[in-house]
Structures are given as C-alpha cells and as structure tokens.
Amino acid sequence: MVKSLRWERDTLYLLDQTALPHQERLLACTTAAEVVQAIKDLRVRGAPALGAAAAYGLVLGAREIAATDLEVFLGRLRETAGQLAASRPTAVNLTWALTRMLRAAERAGSVEQARAALLAEAEAIAADDVRANRAIGEFGAAMLRPGEGILTYCNTGALATVDYGTAFGIIRTAHERGLRPRLFACETRPVLQGARLTAWEAVRLGIDVTVITDNAAGALMRRGLVQRVIVGADRIAANGDVANKIGTYTLAVLARAHEIPFIVAAPLSTVDPDAADGDAIPIEERPPEEVTHLAGIRLVPEGVAAMNPAFDITPHHLVTAIVTDAGVATPPYAGTLGRLRAAAVGG
Ligand code: MRU
C-alpha cells in the first residue's frame, strides 16, 4: 500500500490526496510553511495523519531556525508549532502531536540535541499511530459478525493515518479475518473523500465496497442493507460528543431511527479532555468554492452564497460505542473514556 507520508533524507514526502484516485503523486516538503500549505489544501488529511505530518513539519521548521541559544530556539519553535496547529483547527491530533514535540525539545540540553529529539519524537508519533490503529482494528473487529453491511463516511484508512486506519482499520481487520464485511462508502461531499479515497483503498485490499451518494444512506438502512455504521473522529469531547466530517451527525440520527449501532473509532490521542462537550470544539469553515464547484466546474449560479462547515458534532447519546486503541468505551463516556485515558497514561 502506498503510504500517506514518509520521511526520507531530510524531506517529508506526502502522497497528494487531492490527485487520487487518478494519480499517485508525491509532494516533497522541505519547509514548515510547505507542510502548513499542504495541510490547508487537504493534500494530507485525516486527524492522525495530520498529527504526524505536523510533527515532521516541526522537524523541518527546527532546521530553519538559525539560533544557537536554546531559549531563543525554543521560542521560535513554539511560533512554528503555532502556525502548524492553526492550519486546521478541528483535529485535536495536530495540537496533541505538536505538544508532544515541544515537550521533547524542551527536555534537550542544547539546540543540536533538541533537533535530534524532535526527529526521534516525530518517528515515535508515527510508529505509535500504526500500533494504535492495529489495536483499534482488533477491538473493533471483535464486535462484528460475518457478512455485515457496514456503512462508513469520509476516509479513515491508511491515507488518513500513518498506516492501516481507524474506522476503516476495523473493516480491514474484519476482512483479514475472513468476516467478509460488505462496505458502503458514502461519497462524502463536498470533496469526496469516500468516493475517491475509501473506495481506492478498499479496492486495492480486495474489500467488497459499494459507493453511495450521501443522501442514499437512509434508504439503504430502511432496506436492511446496513447492520452497523462505523466512522472516525477529529476530536472527541470528554463527555463523548464527537466532531467528525460534516454529515456524520445526519448518519447518527438515521442510525438511531433505524436502531442500527453507531460506532466511532479513534485513538485516545483524538480525545480532548479539555473540551467538556461538543460546543467547546472549534469547527473549521472551509472555502465556499468546495461547495459551489466540483472538479473545478461551477455548479452553483454566480453570486449565490455557500456555507462550508467541514465538521459537525454528533451528541454522545447517539453514539453506541467508541473504539479506541486502549479498549471500547460505552456510555456514560465521561467515566469510560476517562478510565481508558488514565489507564493508558499510567500503563
Ligand atoms: O477533512 P478531512 O478529510 O481531514 O476529514 C477527515 C475525517 O473527518 C475523518 O473521519 C477523521 O479525521 C478521522 S481519520 C482516521
């Protein structure tokens, strides 16, 4: 499988996700500013992949700082981290990874040591993500029965992570175990991560996948084709409210109306204990052109306004379970997520 990102010879290579599925094009980044731009342009996307990309972006940023005094160096490093963190505000994995990176640099005794520590920490963040995804796959697949129709949204696979995937990782593990999941991938307007990216990954892995328009989801549920909805998350509040790709909330309401389990899968790094509930999560507003245009062609009459919130909040009461790398949390999430986090920090 082609990797979402790769660090080689002082360069961060990103698989340009805006070019998929037609072209497998690598984007070479050698400065933090290039990484910021790539994140804003969705060339790399998905909460865990954003965290790892930002971490490597800070490694690049550290190389651009000429200061030899450690305190001056750290001050500039924090500014670069701020620019990377602001590139996309909803995915908490960005600030989570950058905080980890700054702590690593702050433990160093010199600028040279700090630069080395930053690279080591970025590599550790990337490796931890793959381990976390494998664990999510194991915990999640254990919940599934053979031959289930599973509806998913956006892209949560290897492209959205360092490798393997979160919600998609569960489907992938189920497939590897011979459970024959039948995947329904919502196309995911406005920029079609489901149609372009999830379908691309599923086909390469030999997973049975059918792409549907987002507005077909309810009809499929009513026809009994969907036994489970599994989605990812960009940030999960302490009470279990979930921020994820715009349209996730609609699916959760539909799933509840049809008594279908609605499962969220994410590493603990996506849980934000500082956000008490979904109202505390910032929602990114993206350019209106993503709504008014499709593949560069204007669909909406000139002069018409378009709103483009990139994420929505699914209230915790619509979420059946949250599958993390440390285990499965069930309601009430304030207690169960807190215990999983405490055990992971302690252990
Ligand atoms: O705007 P995107 O494509 O970055 O949104 C991605 C999602 O909403 C994913 O579901 C989420 O980041 C989890 S990815 C494992």
Question: How would you portray this structure in words?
Answer:
The chain is an alpha/beta fold and 347 residues long. 42% of the residues lie in helices and 17% in strands. It contains eleven helices and 16 strands. The protein has a seven-stranded mixed sheet. Strands 11-8-9-14 form a four-stranded mixed sheet, with helices on one face. The chain has a three-stranded antiparallel sheet with strand order 1-2-3, covered by helices on one side. Helix 7 links the parallel strand 5 and strand 6. Helix 5 crosses helix 6. It is globular. The site of 5-S-methyl-1-O-phosphono-5-thio-D-ribulose has 17 residues, from helix 2 and strand 9. 5-S-methyl-1-O-phosphono-5-thio-D-ribulose binds next to helix 2 and strand 9.
Strand content: 15-25%
Radius of gyration: 20 Å
Question: How far do the termini sit from each other?
Answer: 32 Å
Please provide the count of β strands.
16
Helix content: 40-55%
The major beta sheet can be summarized as: 7 strands, mixed
Ions and ligands:
5-S-methyl-1-O-phosphono-5-thio-D-ribulose
Low-confidence stretches: none
Coarse morphology: globular
Determine the number of helices (DSSP H or I, runs of at least 4 residues). 11
Task: Provide mean pLDDT, rounded.
Answer: 97
Structural class estimated from helices and strands: alpha/beta
Taking strands numbered 1, 2, ... along the chain, how are they ordered across the largest sheet? 6-5-4-7-10-15-16
Report the order of strands and helices: EEEHHHHHEHEHEHEEEHEEHEEEEEH
